[in-house]
């Protein structure tokens, strides 16, 4: 590889900032703190099998010291790093019940929503996991920050992305003008642009859903899954089933190759399992920027007005034509139910 072609994340952000004459570098500072935190979490994830950080939070190790779970460690690292950026007034996290107000930053305008270590049940089995983030601005930075400022529709995200700790470590993000992917070069500890302008195919051949719950899914979702599995040469069916149970890993693969990820409503969880503010909005923002689609089954994910921080929504996300068809089949079922 020619090293003259390497563009680091740092360089990329500086170049982008130069395009906007009013940019003050606040977002760049937030990205720097996200990048630093991700490198620290990446280091801990890579040695997770070697040190005593795999235990449950609250359990004690052999020296009688309290152990912390890796997702709690990741939460602490990201909160500390974002707080130090000096640009973020509030952080909401899947790990925290309430808003974290950054001390001394009550006049700053940025809000970060995050899932510091999604898919953490996969750590013990060495599967890919990741950090998900969304960045918003407050409408009125002169007023006191409140939880209401956090409850914004996903379409108001100013930037969003994820770090994936997989066979390599990557950052995929968007500031609303396309999606770019950066891979961490371990030897120089820099994220380097490796996937410029990611576009997701309009049609894919992968469906990702926890089929173990099939009987609890709405009939329309069951019908769509049967469609994916049916043989039809003209449309390249049957599609391949791929499901890791780690959202970022499943989403990332489908984003690059084309496919659909579904976490539907079930009898047990009528709103699905995934969280609007920490998981769905980020994926919806990225997929739309890459030419795909994201729906709750009844509306565009990015149009949902959150009513609480930890709200869950069903999600159909991925290649546009696949999402449109799955949602149409779901709604056909609803329409039939209304007529019956
Ligand atoms: P978590 O935030 O507790 O880690 O749970 C979210 C994860 C997602 O990464 C994944 O898509 C989903 O749970 C899998 O759920 P299930 O095991 O029900 O299929
Ligand atoms: Mg999660």
Can you tell me about this structure?
By secondary structure, this protein is of the alpha+beta class. The protein has two domains: 3-195, Fructose-1,6-Bisphosphatase, subunit A, domain 1 (Fructose-1,6-Bisphosphatase, Chain A, domain 1, 2-Layer Sandwich); 206-339, 3-Layer(aba) Sandwich (D-Maltodextrin-Binding Protein, domain 2). It has eight helices and 13 strands. It has an eight-stranded mixed sheet with strand order 2-1-3-4-5-6-7-8, sandwiched between helices. It is globular and about 55 Å long. It starts with 8 loop residues before the first helix and ends with a helix. The mean pLDDT is 91. The site of magnesium ion has 4 residues, from strand 3. Residues 94, 115, 118, 279 line the site of magnesium ion.
Lay out the secondary structure.
Layout: H1 9-19, H2 26-46, H3 70-85, E1 88-93, E2 100-101, E3 110-118, E4 129-137, H4 147-150, E5 159-165, E6 169-174, E7 180-185, E8 190-195, E9 206-208, H5 219-229, E10 240-241, H6 247-257, E11 260-263, H7 276-289, E12 293-295, E13 315-318, H8 320-339
Helix pairs in contact: 2-3, 5-8
Bound molecules: 2,5-anhydro-1,6-di-O-phosphono-D-mannitol and magnesium ion.
